[in-house]
Each structure stands twice: as structure tokens, then as C-alpha cells.
């Protein structure tokens, strides 16, 4: 594949070279051999980039949507996406492309005692309902 990008292509050849070795093959497994991994992974990325439903993936570009969906589910379940992310982050970190600055916010959000939606029958919180309940009970 050339380095030329179309509206359906997400990865450059260099980016694909990082991802491809991390993807599992189905060698030794029963069933149909995996088709073009790049075509399927491009379909997964395209679907998330555009937000379209799986069924609306352009078949001529990515093949059957069911294949793309099944491969995505398989890669999510077996940790493939986690390995890909870890490798890309490690490479970017080694090249100094990630700044690991952590910002801590000390904002305090105070909530009224009635905001918790919990009952405290032993404690009068001063709410109107509690006052009515105690007068009904004879208290």
C-alpha cells in the first residue's frame, strides 16, 4: 500500500508497521484464515472515527461489517488492543513525545446532608418528611 491516504485510510504505512506485528494470526486455528488484517483494522478505526454503526461500514473498502466487528471483539477480549496501546505509548515515551505531568485538583464539592439519598432513622436531619413521619408515629 502506498503512503497516500484516502478518506477511508486511517494509518500511514509507518503507523501500520508498528501495529501489524502485535496482531494475532489464526495460524493453527480452525476456520477461515484471517483476511487482510490492515483492511479490517482500518475498518475498526474508521468506524470509531466516524461514529457510524457497524452495519454502515463501506463493504467495498473494509469487507463485511460482521468480519470487522468480530475481529474487534476478539482483539478486545484477548488483550490485543491493550498490547497495541502499551507498545505505542512506550515508543512515544521513549521518543519524548509524552509529557507525564500530573495535575491534582483540590476542589471540594460540598453536598447537603439530604443529597446522599440515604436513610438515617436514628438521626433527625431536620427535613420536612422526617418531621411528618415522626408526628405520624406519635413522636
From TrEMBL:
It comes from the Bacteria. Pfam families: DUF4096. Residues 12-84 form the Insertion element IS402-like domain. InterPro entries: IS402-like_dom, Transposase_6_like. NCBIfam families: transpos_IS5_3. PANTHER family: BLL5188 PROTEIN, TIS1421-TRANSPOSASE PROTEIN A. This is Transposase. The lineage of its organism: Bacteria, Bacillati, Actinomycetota, Actinomycetes, Propionibacteriales.
Amino acid at each position: 500500500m502506498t503512503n497516500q491516504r484516502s478518506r477511508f485510510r486511517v494509518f500511514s504505512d509507518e503507523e501500520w508497521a508498528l501495529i501489524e506485528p502485535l496482531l494475532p494470526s489464526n495460524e493453527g486455528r480452525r476456520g477461515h484464515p484471517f483476511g487482510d488484517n490492515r483492511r479490517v483494522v482500518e475498518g475498526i478505526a474508521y468506524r470509531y472515527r466516524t461514529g457510524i454503526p457497524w452495519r454502515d461500514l463501506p463493504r467495498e473498502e473494509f469487507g463485511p461489517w460482521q468480519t470487522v466487528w468480530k475481529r474487534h471483539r476478539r482483539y478486545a477480549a484477548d488483550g490485543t488492543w491493550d498490547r497495541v496501546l502499551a507498545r505505542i505509548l512506550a515508543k512515544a515515551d521513549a521518543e519524548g513525545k509524552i509529557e507525564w505531568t500530573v495535575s491534582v485538583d483540590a476542589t471540594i464539592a460540598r453536598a447537603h446532608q439530604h443529597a446522599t439519598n440515604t436513610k438515617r432513622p436514628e438521626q433527625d436531619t431536620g427535613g420536612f418528611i422526617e418531621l411528618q413521619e415522626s408526628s405520624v408515629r406519635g413522636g
